[in-house]
Amino acid sequence: MNDAETTESHAPVDYEIRVRGHLSDTLLVAFPDLQVRPQGGETVLIGGLADQSALYGVLARIEALGIDLLEVRRKSA
């Protein structure tokens, strides 16, 4: 593996995670590293995640809090 591949594999990947409804300030505390954008009757969480494990952690928090997940989209670089 060359240096470019090593650097690239550790770069955060930007994701857009869409959930149903508007999240309260109490729920937003669970996602401190993500930007929040209300859109219509939904909330979009946007941000860079270090790896798939970090993504699964966010998705697990969404599930644990009873939030309805609508979409997960990896943003292209």
From TrEMBL:
Protein name: Uncharacterized protein
